[in-house]
Design a protein that fits this description.
Layout (H helix, E strand, L loop, with lengths): L4 E5 L4 H13 L3 E6 L19 E5 L5 H11 L3 E4 L6 H6 L2 H23 L3 H6 L1 E7 L23 H20 L3 E6 L1 E3 L8 H11 L3 E4 L5 E6 H14 L5 E4 L4 E3 H15 L12 E4 L14 H7 L7 H14 L1 H9 L1 H10 L2
Parallel strand pairs: 1-2, 1-4, 2-3, 4-5, 5-6, 6-10, 7-9, 8-12
Antiparallel strand pairs: 9-11
Length: 355
């Protein structure tokens, strides 16, 4: 076994690519990056590590058991960090089948492939092995005006997306308790930062604003989310994988509660200063109210006290510092944005890996 080989599923996605870049820069892990390359997978987000000998990419669907078995046999990892998932709530409302397939069936298939590999390891290797499942705070449902999600908050998922992630969380727990597979789970709040696919709120608003398009706001814009800078999340994932206790759950939050309207107003104000509109008007004038999302959860907020107490992690970025870094990155990387918006990134990947 190569003791420093790690599988990361979904490593071409937003959070996964941030974790891959961090681990290549700040560890000696060899990363086998397993990604199906759906629309949200973008190898351009891994350009800085693509030639690194410690980064091995495999275009593989986690629902394909034989392909997973072959990867385990070839690379002999000492752990898995599982991020591969369909993750956009709106898409889950209009097309839930893909979410059931990837998030539930895919997680089951990956667990079974992992269990088969893990079961054949020597005792010492079995005990040091870890399966880290990365999930979301949306499995807990919606909060009222007060309170925070903790690791013991009952599950009450309200969208097809969150229901599929809740199901995968329960599968991971069951494989620990039934088969002894050493698993840890983390549930995070809303991520933002560089390289995020522009279907999510912050990159959508930035790309729309820079193109002079309307900035759509669901309902009154008063839904509250806890915002976590993606590099802070990547650091937390590294710590949970390396030091987390099997069977434990760790909530990861940014301690940055903001309404959607506050987020958009902040973005517009920063863009007014950094990239003024040619017509002299404020980006705030582009705000447009649209019909609310069906079943839109009112508020999410995480108590990240456990990971701070037990593992010593806390976010380094405030919302103000993180959003400034995010806007600066998007303004400095128009080519990446253009490739994503036009779909050119897909053409490039198809040339490399086929459809």
């Amino acid at each position: 076994m190569t003791l420093k080989t790690l599988f990361i599923t979904g490593g071409a996605g937003f959070i996964g690519s941030a974790l891959v870049r961090l681990l290549i820069a700040e560890s000696d892990w060899t990363i086998v990056n397993i990604d199906k390359l759906t629309y949200a997978g973008n190898l351009e987000s891994l350009a800085t590590v693509s030639d690194n000998r410690r980064h091995v990419f495999s275009r593989t669907d986690i629902c394909e058991r034989e392909a997973l078995d072959s990867l385990f046999a070839e690379h002999r990892p000492s752990g898995v960090i599982h991020l591969a998932a369909e993750s956009h709530v709106d898409r889950s409302i209009h097309g839930p089948a893909e979410f059931i397939q990837t998030n539930i069936v895919g997680t089951y298939t990956l667990l079974e492939a992992t269990r088969a590999y893990w079961s054949a390891l020597a005792a010492a290797e079995k005990s040091s092995f870890r399966f880290h499942h990365v999930s979301t705070d949306e499995v807990y449902g919606s909060l009222g005006a007060e309170g925070l999600f903790t690791e013991t908050t009952p599950y009450r998922p309200n969208s097809p997306y969150s229901a599929s992630k809740a199901s995968s969380d329960h599968l991971v727990r069951a494989w620990l308790h039934t088969y002894g597979l050493p698993t840890v789970t983390s549930n995070c709040s809303n991520n933002y930062g560089p390289y995020q696919f522009p279907e999510k709120l912050i990159p959508l608003m930035i790309t729309h604003a820079l193109s002079g398009k309307p900035l759509p706001i669901y309902g009154k814009g008063d839904n509250v989310r806890d915002w976590l800078y993606v590099d802070d999340h990547a650091r937390a994932l590294k710590i949970v994988f390396e030091r987390g206790v099997p069977g434990e759950v760790y909530n990861i939050g940014g301690n940055n509660e903001k309404t959607n309207l506050e987020v958009i107003d902040t973005l517009c104000s920063l863009l007014d200063r950094l990239r003024p509109r040619t017509d002299g008007r404020s980006y705030l004038d582009l705000k447009t109210s649209v019909a609310d999302r069906p079943g839109h959860d009112k508020r999410y907020a995480i108590d990240a006290g456990k990971i701070n107490r037990d593992l010593g992690w806390k976010p380094q970025e405030s919302f103000e510092s993180g959003i400034a870094k995010t806007i600066d990155w998007y303004l400095s990387n128009p080519e990446w944005i253009a490739h994503v918006v036009s779909g050119e990134y897909r053409t490039w990947m198809e040339k490399q890996y086929g459809k």
